[in-house]
Specification:
Rossmann fold, globular, 4-stranded antiparallel beta sheet, alpha/beta, single chain, 30% helix
């Protein structure tokens, strides 16, 4: 099987053995109605409404959308448009907490007895891709022909530096994850379930292998545990599919087109937790780390908690010059610590000046390192040339849309060029070009 590219980044898994700690309930939370791929949820509360933990405050507004729930009990303080992590404006609900964390009185475990009821439970849980993608899980699991699902791959790679929230999920919530796999096996009936974990996570590997080996005489193991090399971006969906199955997802196609489905381990834990106790997705396990953080930890915090509350709990030892929500390779730099954590926030990193300053950019020396390390086999240098010359037809020729925006090219570039940022702009140029051609052909 052809070896894909990638880079060997420093792991910095400083919190891998740090149990999850629950932070004190913040005085208020700000919960955006758009923290998933697809249509924003429709806000169904107004200023002054009393809400409880797990109460619906935003209805899914379509098939590719996700329901949103109150993460604290208290009163709705405001409903207005605010700046989102993405840079866009989003309707957000600010809730002033009463400090009681009273569960919503109407919560109860769903009745799951067949595929439709299972999918309804997944929808009602508010689950999205918690590895960072934010794609509504029910949309991923809803397939017209369940027989097309040959492989279900559990993403336990967690290949980004610093982040260990999935690691702690695989340790502390291992039974929830495993229970969801039983439900997937029962209702989607995949031929194979593969639990993929990078080799730098010995405790999750050991615990998952114990679960897989716990079968009755004559029974087949529920899942195969596959240990993968620690190579970024091992956790990328297309990377996982290739490294587990040898199948390549073609340009413009979905994993299901090659019989595969990839689901993050933390997403599975949320689904099972909801089916067992009726509490939807209202909090997140988040790794807090970086050179400016005094005591790096894994924290459980209500969705909508300001980043500042996480820093208050962990402490800071240096002046913060850059805050990244997510990992250092694919995360998003945020403007301030007032930004709220979202459903798909798996880490918040705070860096001091030495790590935050951008290196000086020098001209390209045509060394080919970006090509060597691209996991998709692209030629970033050619794509940059096409972008700079404003030739979108060449962006299509060199397959710009296959770019994962993983950052391997920029990481390996000796000239320190911000190639990934250029690739984002190049893909936007190609989208505009494709749309214009489609309109002209009508």
């Amino acid at each position: 099987m052809r070896k894909l590219g990638g880079v060997s980044t420093p792991h910095h898994k400083n919190t891998a053995t740090s149990p999850v700690e629950e932070i004190p309930t913040p005085p208020e939370v700000r919960i955006p109605m758009s923290m998933h791929i697809g249509a924003p949820a429709k806000c169904i509360v107004k200023v002054g409404d009393a809400v409880q933990v797990g109460q619906l405050i935003g209805e899914a507004a379509g098939f590719v959308s996700s329901s949103i729930y109150a993460s604290v009990s208290g009163k709705v303080k405001s409903v207005d448009e605010t700046d989102a992590v993405t840079g866009y404006r989003s309707v957000s609900v600010t809730i002033a907490s009463d400090g009681l964390q009273t569960p919503y009185e109407k919560l109860s475990p769903p009745d799951v007895h067949d595929l439709p009821s299972f999918l309804e439970a997944v929808r009602a849980s508010g689950a999205v891709g918690l590895g960072g993608a934010g794609f509504p899980t029910v949309a991923k699991l809803t397939v017209k022909d369940a027989g097309k699902v040959d492989y279900i791959i559990v993403n336990g790679a967690e290949c980004e530096p610093y982040i260990t929230s999935d690691t702690r999920t695989m340790v502390e919530d291992k039974d929830y994850v495993w229970n969801s796999l039983k439900l997937l096996k029962k209702y989607l009936k995949p031929a194979h379930i593969v639990y993929a974990i990078e080799e730098n996570k010995p405790e999750p590997i050991r615990l998952t292998r114990e679960l897989a080996a716990n079968v009755q005489p004559g029974e087949e193991p529920l899942a195969e545990v596959k240990v993968l090399p620690s190579l970024y971006p091992q956790g990328g969906e297309k990377m996982l599919i290739y490294n587990v199955t040898g199948r390549i997802v073609p340009e413009g196609k979905l994993p299901l087109d090659v019989g595969a489905m990839v689901i993050n381990c933390s997403t599975l834990a949320i689904i099972s937790r909801y089916i067992i106790n009726g509490m939807p997705l209202v909090s997140r396990c988040i790794t807090v780390d970086g050179s400016a953080v005094k005591n790096p930890k894994n924290l459980a915090a209500p969705i909508g908690t300001p980043v500042s509350a996480l820093f208050d709990y962990c402490g800071l030892k240096k002046e913060v010059r850059k805050i990244i929500m997510g990992g250092p390779m694919m995360g998003t730099a945020i403007p301030n610590a007032d930004m709220p954590i979202l459903k798909n926030t798996n880490a918040v990193l705070a860096f001091a000046e030495a790590e935050a300053l951008l290196p000086a950019e020098t001209p390209c020396i045509n060394c080919g390192q970006c090509i060597k390390h691209c996991p998709m086999g692209l030629m970033p240098s050619n794509l940059l040339t096409a972008y700079n010359l404003k030739k979108p037809e060449n962006l299509a020729k060199y397959k710009a849309n296959l770019c994962l925006e993983c950052g391997c090219c920029a990481y390996s570039c000796p000239a320190k060029r911000p190639i990934t940022q250029y690739m984002k702009l190049a893909k936007a140029m190609l989208r505009d070009y494709t749309a214009a051609n489609a309109n002209n052909s009508k």
